[in-house]
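Customer escalation, tier 2.

The customer says the design service returned an amino acid string that "doesn't look like it belongs to this structure." They asked us to rerun it and document both sides in this ticket. The original structure tokens are below, unchanged.
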């Protein structure tokens, strides 16, 4: 931000008002849906075209990961899949603003961010195949477990941020010693009590946490306009921290705004709220049928704001990439698709006995007793044939 915020936390020039649900002029945008770069008074993308090409590559790979997940569910290989289609820019732009020492708390839809954090594809798929509880190494990837309980991760994130603060990991003169937390939640989640309690704690303690509200316009069949009488980002001002609405389909703007919010958190300037204005192009999950509650015109209008197409157009026009570059990327996405499919089919159910082994860092006498009781219970049965064990 080039200018200081107003005393109530709002950006310069803004006034809180109650009738601005669709005020798109309040949205930070740096790349239009037509692929044209535009200026914003407060935010700028500082990377070069090579970096933008890197973001394009990651968005394309995230989209492929997601399409494979949906297909694998349709083929009966996964029990469920929550698609990210349409939210690639919001995920990759924000995920790229995270540094190694930072910590991320996701919902169940942040597959693109998980990919950036190096979470193995098999670990992501296992949760939705029902072969594990989704327990990847949180410390190694600095990426929390997927959270199905709407909004619960905001409490964990705020607590974690308060711990960073107490460990002296913010506001140090050496930038590498500082860290912050990025927590994702949905538009629907913003109505949860847990989430609002997190906002209060974050503000009261000036915790280094950035709330990244993925406003994909829908909470299953409930439109986001029903969650709030004012634009979601303006709610932050009532808690006492800045709130910014960004074009969630513009990867440059998302990266710039998230960089700003994370850096001020790392420097000890407290929490911030980012509303990424985007759209869930697919179903809520593979168990949902969005044609029952929304109009195809709406989806079509958002298709014209596709987050990937605008970056492709910009880079092609700038001469930074060409058709050869794009076909190499297609080949890379195809290889990823093959890796995802073969990894998925090899995921075997783990035994319940294994659960007792990973319940605590060190097994306790009780967890060992419980595991042994479970094993001796199993031993009472005839071994199952491979067919009936499935
Ligand atoms: C505490 C809780 N209440 C209800 C649900 C059921 N539920 C699952 S997803 C969802 C909607 C979430 O919408 P939003 O926060 O906008 O996230 P999105 O799915 O759009 O990414 C609900 C109500 C749940 N999982 N947890
Ligand atoms: Mg939503």
């Amino acid at each position: 931000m080039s200018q200081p915020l107003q005393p109530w936390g709002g950006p310069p020039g803004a006034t809180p008002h109650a009738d601005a649900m669709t005020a798109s002029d309040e949205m930070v945008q740096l790349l239009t849906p037509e692929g044209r770069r535009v200026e914003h008074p407060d935010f700028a993308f500082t990377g070069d075209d090579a970096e933008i090409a890197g973001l394009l590559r990651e968005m394309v790979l995230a989209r492929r990961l997601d399409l494979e997940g949906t297909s694998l569910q349709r083929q009966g290989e996964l029990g469920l899949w929550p698609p990210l289609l349409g939210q690639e820019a919001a995920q990759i732009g924000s995920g790229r603003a995270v540094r190694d020492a930072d910590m991320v708390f996701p919902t169940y839809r942040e597959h693109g961010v998980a990919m950036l954090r190096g979470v193995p594809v098999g670990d992501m798929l296992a949760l939705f195949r029902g072969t594990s509880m989704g327990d990847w190494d949180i410390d190694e990837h600095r990426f929390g477990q997927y959270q199905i309980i709407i909004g619960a991760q905001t409490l964990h994130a705020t607590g974690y941020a308060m711990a960073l603060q107490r460990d002296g990991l913010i506001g140090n003169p050496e930038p590498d010693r500082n860290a912050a937390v990025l927590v994702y939640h949905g538009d629907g989640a913003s109505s949860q009590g847990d989430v609002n309690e997190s906002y209060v704690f974050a503000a009261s303690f000036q915790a280094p946490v950035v709330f990244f509200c993925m406003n994909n316009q829908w909470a299953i069949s409930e439109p986001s306009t029903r969650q709030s009488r004012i634009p979601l980002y303006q709610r932050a001002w009532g808690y006492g921290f800045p709130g910014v609405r960004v074009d969630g389909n513009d990867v440059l703007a998302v990266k710039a705004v998230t960089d700003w919010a994370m850096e001020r958190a790392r420097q000890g300037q407290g929490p911030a709220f980012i509303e990424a204005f985007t759209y869930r192009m697919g179903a809520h999950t593979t168990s949902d049928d969005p044609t029952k509650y929304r109009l195809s015109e709406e989806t079509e209008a958002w298709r014209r704001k596709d987050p990937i197409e605008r970056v492709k157009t910009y880079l092609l026009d700038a001469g930074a990439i060409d058709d050869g570059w794009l076909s190499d990327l297609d080949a890379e996405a195809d290889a990823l698709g093959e890796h995802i499919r073969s990894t998925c089919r090899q995921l075997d159910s783990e035994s319940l006995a294994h659960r007792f082994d990973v319940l605590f860092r060190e097994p306790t006498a009780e967890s060992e007793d419980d595991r042994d009781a479970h094993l001796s219970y199993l031993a009472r049965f005839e071994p199952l044939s491979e067919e009936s064990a499935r």
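Tier 2 assessment: The sequence is consistent with the input. The pocket of thiamine diphosphate (ligand 1) is lined by residues 107, 109, 148-150, 186-189, 214, 216, 218-220, 280, 284 (CB under 6 Å). Confidence is low (pLDDT under 50) at residues 16-25. Sent an explanation to the customer and offered a walkthrough call.
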